[in-house]
Records
---
Amino acid sequence: MNKDIFICHASEDKASVARPLAACLSERGLSYWIDEAEISAGESITQKVNEGLKVSKFVVVIFSRAFMSKHWAKRELWSVLNQEAKSGKIIIIPLLVGSQTEVAGIIDEFPLLNDKSFLLWDGDANSVSNAIQNAVLKVQGASPTCVTEMHSCGHCATPFMHGVHVCLGCQGSIKYGLTQRERMNIRKISAAIIGMLSFITMVHFPSYSESWLGLEVPMMWGMGFWSIPLAAILALGAGLYFEARAVARKALLVRTFR
Ligand SMILES: [Zn+2]
């Protein structure tokens, strides 16, 4: 399993389809295996696909006239696709290549393809790569919602995609999480808490002097010296905790400001 995609193709389709597709997939950060993946006449496609699955997670099979003319039995395609259906995972992505009549002919010969979603090659490696990338992300469980998470504007209810910063409906600015001003307010409250806790801690622990605010306090070994750093650490910890909690609570907020 060292590659993402194994591209299974007839040698006739290498220059026109397999190579441009491979280049596009690699631009998207998907690794591929192509050179040994050619199907030659009389070769078993089941064997080829299984070989591919040993080194990769997905197999893109390029169905074209040239591919169809190789002498592999139709039952084999059945067995490969059945194997996949049993595993319950999309591992084979058929890519149909040719003119409309050629594609219709391929589907006529393999009605099984109708039950499977296949991709059509229209000469644009980009759109096919996008579809393959989506299929890979979906199977790998990268939730597709995080790619296309939708919200709707609180002012005008216009839907927008996560990451957009201006509402197209009301031109309001969309903010994720806390605004700068809200952050500053929380910091002010934290600072107040830090100050108060420092004061309380210092009053309650004797310091360098035996007398604290006019009161006689018993001096314990070490306690006096450590009271100030102790007060600072306790107070700072409490203040930072409060700030972090407040920020985390509001982190998922998506709001429109006008
Ligand atoms: Zn709006």
Note: The chain has two domains: 3-146, 176-257.
---
Amino acid sequence: MANKDMKHSNNIAGAWYCTDPDDDNGEGCIACNVCYTGAPDFFAEDDDGNAYVKKQPETDDEKELCMEQLEACPVNSIGNDG
Ligand code: SF4
């Protein structure tokens, strides 16, 4: 699940984040591409295809779109409590 102590280093500061693939619990991003294809304004991929948050959502619509990615992530690697 999302681990705010193991954020991807590229995440922009703020509540929303992606968990680093090297998370000790083995539950970080698996580069499935769901979030950065579903919400490309807010999520991006690094050179290995792992996701990070590039822009924090601000409006309700933006937060809803990011929440859809959070719920769709197959390994619950996206958090909004950071
Ligand atoms: S949906 Fe989850 S596993 Fe897939 S790229 Fe995004 S953070 Fe990684």
Note: Residues 60-72 form the longest helix (13 residues).
